[in-house]
Amino acid sequence: MKRLSFVAALLLLLLLPALASPITLAWNPSPTPGVTYNLYRATGTGPFVIVTNTAQTTVTISMLPALSSFYVTAATSINPTNESLPSNTATTPPLASAVQQVSLTFGSVALPPPPPPPPPPATNTGTRSFTNSTPITIPDSGASTPYPSTITVNGLSGTLTNVSVTIFGFGHTCPNDVDILLVGPSGDKAMIMSDVGASIDVNNITFTLSDLSTTTLPSATILINNMVYQPTDYAPTEVLPAPAPAGPYTSALSVFTNKVYNGVWSLYVFDDGPGDLGSLARGWSLTLNTK
């Protein structure tokens, strides 16, 4: 029985293929960043998976038949099943007595095209004008119709650096009675015209109010067509009725700079003396400078 066992063991050894000593396989890194590697044994009925999803470019294996062949593939971390073409095949030497270095070079890995870069943030700076051409009717005393007249500003970016207002088709038999208050989206307010032009009739004139002008609105002389005036509020101090905000008011349009500007701007027109009528026949416009 012992002899039969010895003979059987001997036959088994003769039938087994020779085993290689431990062998280190190395491969060139992929030029594609962010990939992992899969190592396969190509001989036999396989392939046989040796290592999968490794970020290393070397692996040491042992207890495999001598003269085994191996190849490596690369895969993306986004899609591990999307493997590259196989590398060339490397074969372990027969009955190697020392660790062997075998170089493998693989084909390129197919990557999905990168997404397009995001568009740059929208910028809309510079000078923009917004107009409400609806007529504003001024009664012989009291609030205008409408009260207020509004303009909605949107789509601007940057920092607000300057504001100007243009009055279209202004006519009144006593301009000194007319008070005009501008209110911005954040509630800032400026009495841009009050007690100006004396009692001298004007009809259908257009003028602009801007801090950049050095010419104040006249208090005792006629308003001039197509002029650019500095906003002016002469005494006495006026406080407009609700829904206009309460005073006190500045006259400078600089109160709106560096403030919120996208939103609703309101123009309140009020007549504080009886017996005279007027209008802004073609409405008004708002010009904003941002940078």
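Next protein, fold it too.
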Amino acid sequence: MGTDHRRMRRARSMIRDLTGQTFGRLIAIRLAGFTIRRSKDGKSMPGQAIWLCKCACGNEKEIVGSSLTAKRKATRSCDCIAREKAAARLKGIRGQDSIAFGHRVTVASKRFKREVCYAS
């Protein structure tokens, strides 16, 4: 049994089991592996645990465990929340769903200013 194999086995025994836990829209399915880091003497050692997670939207994504358990700026989805927020911001740029519907908006550029009315 090699020293790298012993280190990996020891690292597995030291990590907290997140299997089945929910983090926002993500559910930790299983341990997918470890990141690899180098020690000062050049040997490779296991770094952070990587978990395979399933999102509520159906996607599966590998995420570093510390990112799941962080108190601030933690990973809570497979980026589907960001896509939904972006789609919500873009929805209704023109037309009756627009925030600016019926109002004049000043559009400025380097060469000229003009007023645009989004009301039809």
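About the second fold: The two ends are 75 Å apart (CA to CA).
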